[in-house]
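Weekly sync notes, structure subgroup
Attendees: PM, AL, DS (notes)

Item 1: joint prediction request from the bench team. They want all two components modeled as one assembly rather than separately. Inputs as received:
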Amino acid sequence: MATMTSGLAPKTWASRAWWSLSVACLVAVIGVLFAIFAFVIARGVPALKPQIFFTPTHGIAGGLSNAIEGTLMLVFLGLILVIVVGLGTAIWTVEFAPPWGKKVIRFMVDVLAGIPSIVVGYFLYVALVEEAGWGFSLVAGSLALAIFMLPYVVRAADVALTNVPRALKEGAVALGARPAMVVASINFPYALPGILTGVLVATGIGLGETAPLIYTAGWSNYAPTLAPTHSPVGYLTYVVWTYISQPFEESHQLAYAAAALLMIFVFLTNLLARSYVEYKLGGNRQQ
Amino acid sequence: MGLRIGDAVKAVSPATLQRTGAQAFLRVLTGVAALISFLIIFLMLFFLIYYAYPAIRFNGLNFLTNPIWNIGNQYGSGVTTRNGFSGPPGASFGALVFIFGSVVTAALTMVVAVPLSMMVALSLVYRVPRRIRPLANALVELMAGVPSVVYGLWGLVVLVPWIGQTFAPWVTAHFGFVPFFGGSAGSGNGLAAAVFILALMVIPIMVATTRDVILAQSNSLFEASMALGSTSWQAMVRAVLPSVRSGIVASILLSFGRALGETMAVLMVCGAAINTFPQNFFSPVNTIAAVIVSQLESALTDATGMAQRSLAELACVLFIITLLVNIVARGIMRGADRREGAHQ
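Output from the run, pasted for the record:
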């Protein structure tokens, strides 16, 4: 026995060493992630003073109220656009499209997901800000976010709608439900958790985007107006990007505060998406 | 594939029900939405090429081989005209430095990120205890959601000083004989910082896809290989990983595309090199995506508009490169799906 174990030993030891290395890599990656979290929280949370929620930025200092409102408005309007177009696209793809149509749409969504965000931003800059003459504006910024979020919503809704059980739909049709009713009362409620998760993931992505907004939303030190065009909008990621390169401590504080807020927003949407899925799955398990 | 309502209606209801107003309405409405998604890509290509066309003519093919980006003399009188389009006198719009920078940065990112991601994915699947696996998975996914400016912020404040003051001097002192590692240690802003930050950003994506393709593979290969006397590591590396090769290659290509297009984090740590190629691993560098952001402000001062149009031409180049990378990746992925489907 002893000779057998020693005969196996080199191989076994090599295997153990490789596995240890792989665990070490996992620990290292999670360690760096924690370092980033700790850094943002340690610098950002002390900078989150109450007044920054009520004061707009003044040049290099002030608060963040304009950026917070701007981010929320851009993402909210972007979400409305992306939900309408994304859900419509997914419903058409799953319910009405001929096979080639499904292929084309899915391919296009994949392609869209791979387009760099700065290209989306520059396209809208050229098309809307310059050629259409809208200037930096809420609508241009929201459209940029919507285009960037679209693949996430379409994919999630596509998968969720495709997975609606055949028997349920057949049952509804057999009971005399019209197609629009089947969509509204069977497909939709059944697919809702999947769709909602996709929307929440897209929200997280939209909240953290910068590149598509720089040349569409612009930047403004004032609270965003409701004007759809010709009125630039401030947003949080811009503060992180530009204020950290200013040589002033106040602007650094604002950049850290904005970064902490973004992390908190993203963390919350992530948590919400997860807990909602868990809750839904838990509910199904009990049935 | 699920049942389509249209089929069900045809199967079970009289023909009169098929063309109810509601269905026609829904079909048209959702069809318009699908058309919009479809049109976005065409409009994007159309507008970028339309807007860049004067620059494409003005710069010629030279654009791809010229390393000098100079918006020319903005205060002199007169313009330079080439192929019927005018730009500022002395202007030279060359993309070579940026194309090279994008490709080198993304490629080196892959060199760092691919082995790390494989290792992390393997330990997630086989070594993390079942009870804490959901937590580890959630952390990896959370990492994918961190905004790129936050990575950029950490890179600028923590990573760049560390590279500039500790890492780069140490490497150049001890490994200076290795070709790419010798020479000036630089300030920390540069290729190394961009590569490390990009690696952190693509690792979660690659880990998640690698983990998923391994989990989708049945356990029998692993078990058969173990039964033939290999160690668990050998079973993993020689039997399981080769069987999911195309899934992994596709995820590497997708991450490569992502690294090529990433803007903000790279912009914040790359050192924004113009008109010079990186001399070593620590030199400032610049990428197409980063230069579009950092050069637009000065491009706006160009009264002829040629600088802005040249940036649009850069955006076209980036669009085409990432499009090709993505199409190849999706092709590989589809092929892998089809082969997997054939087994079942």
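Discussion: Chain B has one domain: 95-343.
Action: AL to compare against the crosslinking data before next sync.
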